[in-house]
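Priority: medium. Attachment 1 of 2:
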């Protein structure tokens, strides 16, 4: 079973119709208008390619639901949201190790944006 993390906490999965992409997908080969929902796999919490892919998809005009799935840690939630992800899908065992409170602590991702603070 999986848990969906959003800015307001943990949720049950409410969507199954996703175009699944690997983190090493070449964005030049994608037409973001072909999918309503895209899920990008994170095979490891140390693999940041999914963040780049999400940002590129948003810059290409993708407006649907964008989900990070797999090994995303609560410490990475703010980065995921800033890159364009709407939500994160995590396995139950990760949710047990990192309960909702740890994710909610990072849910105010706009307030803690270093680059925005530097721009003034």
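Attachment 2 of 2:
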């Amino acid at each position: 079973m999986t848990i969906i993390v959003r800015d307001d906490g943990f949720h049950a999965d409410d969507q199954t119709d996703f175009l699944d992409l690997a983190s090493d997908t070449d964005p030049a080969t994608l037409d973001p208008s072909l999918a309503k929902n895209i899920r990008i796999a994170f095979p490891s919490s140390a693999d940041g390619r999914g963040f780049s892919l999400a940002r590129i998809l948003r810059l290409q005009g993708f407006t649907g639901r964008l989900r990070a799935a797999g090994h995303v840690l609560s410490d990475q939630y703010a980065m995921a949201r800033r890159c364009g992800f709407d939500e994160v899908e995590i396995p139950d065992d990760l949710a047990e190790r990192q309960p909702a409170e740890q994710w909610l602590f990072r849910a105010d991702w706009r307030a803690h944006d270093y680059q925005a603070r530097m721009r003034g």
